[in-house]
């Protein structure tokens, strides 16, 4: 898979221009952001993942009698019979694709101009004609990259966020689209948090979703200019750190690699809250997904520690991972000053070069080994 330059990916914008003009401010439609892109896996491979008990997936079938009818939501593993349904429009979502497919991981890391501590995962959705998850809004930033086929996207910056009662998904009751586009393979749409959107497949299609963990909400002070009420958190009041272009580069084989959006021990303030906790439609984890790549699934299923490095042979690229999802914290994390630089590199790059251990304090090795022993990862393959 040939990935484009950053300027092509962002429609001719530099990372600084994108962050200044669009990030968490307004949507951006980019035609041919990834020229020639049709996906990182075939439909059969996608279905294999959806049917695997170690992979997080959801099947959603639209009601036959309108949005306020009976929605069907089934968590994985999926059945092959369910994925052959033709009576009503449906879609299947597979999360953490970057943990299973090397090309998915490379695609995700093309977005590392956003600090790695914010980057979450790559999700893919497959839908039959008319399939989708209904009009909704998310609490995090997302890039929607069209794979095979076409999808119609309608978006709105509406204030009305009332939901359909009793639905297993958070479906907007009064969606009022303001913009309407059809995305073709390689096209991409960026949406800031809280923008209402509805994607409907035109024929069968796949859409790849690159998502970012949201920062924890903080109570805002009253302001006559912003109109925010004291103690409230709204779209205009949602705080986010000022982001700067990441200077990291792709990791080498001799690295300790991570896959965590919630690992930022050096953040100022409370630990980050995962976007999954409040976005049950587009992204929602009910359990921690495995971190062994596609080729290793069978062996990994029988392992008592899914991330054990001896589970099975690995691909040539460093697909083994070290994830470090920290428990929610109410205050700042206390980090030994001697570990701060190394953990800052780990949080932003999701990788720690082998030479970082040359003069590393004992506490760093002990901390990483503790994460490894608790099933959060493994050393990258040489």
Description of the molecule:
The chain is of the alpha+beta class and about 375 residues long. The chain is globular. It has seven helices and 13 strands.
**Element order: H for helix, E for strand:** HHEHEEEHEEEEEEEEHHEH
| Helix percentage range | 10-25%
Q: Briefly note the structural class of the backbone.
A: alpha+beta
What's the shape?
Answer: globular
Low-confidence stretches: 219-241, 248-280, 284-330
Q: Approximately what portion of the residues adopt beta-strand conformation?
A: 15-25%
Secondary structure tally, helices: 7
Strand order of the largest sheet: 1-9-6-11-5-4-2-3
pLDDT average, as an integer? 73
- Radius of gyration equals 21 Å
Largest sheet: 8 strands, antiparallel
Walk me through the topology.
Elements: H1 6-9, H2 15-21, E1 28-30, H3 43-50, E2 57-61, E3 72-75, E4 90-94, H4 102-109, E5 119-127, E6 142-146, E7 150-156, E8 179-183, E9 188-191, E10 196-202, E11 205-212, E12 255-257, H5 297-301, H6 340-349, E13 351-353, H7 362-373
Antiparallel strand pairs: 1-9, 2-3, 2-4, 4-5, 5-11, 6-9, 6-11, 7-8, 7-10, 12-13
What characteristics describe this protein?
382 residues; alpha+beta; 8-stranded antiparallel sheet; 3-stranded antiparallel sheet; 7 helices; 18% strand
Q: Can I get a quick summary?
A:
With 382 residues, the chain is α+β, with helices and mostly antiparallel strands. Helices cover 14% and strands 18% of the residues.
């Amino acid at each position: 898979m040939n990935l484009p330059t950053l300027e092509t990916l962002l429609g001719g914008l530099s990372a600084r221009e994108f962050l200044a003009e669009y990030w968490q401010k307004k949507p951006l439609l980019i035609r041919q952001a990834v020229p020639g892109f049709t996906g990182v896996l075939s439909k059969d491979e996608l279905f294999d993942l959806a049917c695997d008990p170690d992979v997080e997936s959801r099947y959603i079938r639209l009601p036959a009698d309108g949005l306020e009818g009976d929605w069907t939501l089934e968590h994985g593993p999926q059945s092959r019979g369910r994925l052959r349904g033709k009576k009503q429009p449906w879609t299947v979502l597979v999360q953490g694709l970057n943990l299973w497919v090397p090309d998915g991981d490379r695609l995700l890391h093309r977005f590392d101009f956003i600090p790695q501590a914010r980057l979450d995962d790559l999700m893919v959705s497959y839908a039959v004609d008319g399939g989708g998850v209904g009009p909704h809004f998310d609490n995090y930033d997302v890039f929607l990259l069209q794979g095979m086929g076409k999808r119609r996207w309608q978006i709105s910056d509406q204030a009305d966020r009332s939901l359909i009662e009793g639905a297993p998904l958070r479906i907007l009751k009064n969606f009022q689209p303001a913009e309407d586009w059809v995305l073709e393979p390689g096209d991409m749409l960026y949406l800031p948090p809280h923008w209402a959107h509805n994607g409907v497949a035109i024929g069968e299609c796949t859409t790849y979703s690159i998502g970012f963990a949201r920062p924890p909400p903080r109570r805002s002070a009253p302001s006559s200019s912003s109109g925010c009420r004291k103690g409230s958190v709204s779209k205009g009041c949602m705080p986010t750190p000022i982001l700067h272009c990441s200077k990291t580069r792709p990791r080498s084989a001799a690295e300790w690699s991570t896959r965590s959006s919630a690992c930022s021990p050096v953040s100022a303030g409370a630990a980050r809250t995962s976007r999954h906790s409040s976005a049950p439609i587009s992204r929602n984890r009910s359990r921690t997904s495995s971190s062994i790549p596609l080729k290793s699934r069978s062996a990994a299923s029988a392992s008592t520690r899914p991330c054990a490095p001896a589970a099975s042979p690995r691909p040539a690229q460093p697909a083994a991972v070290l994830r470090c999802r920290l428990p929610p914290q109410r205050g700042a994390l206390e980090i030994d000053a001697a570990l701060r630089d190394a953990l800052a590199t780990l949080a932003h790059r999701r990788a720690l070069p082998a030479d970082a251990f040359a003069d590393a304090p004992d506490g760093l090795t002990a901390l990483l080994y503790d994460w490894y022993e608790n099933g959060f990862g493994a050393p990258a393959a040489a």
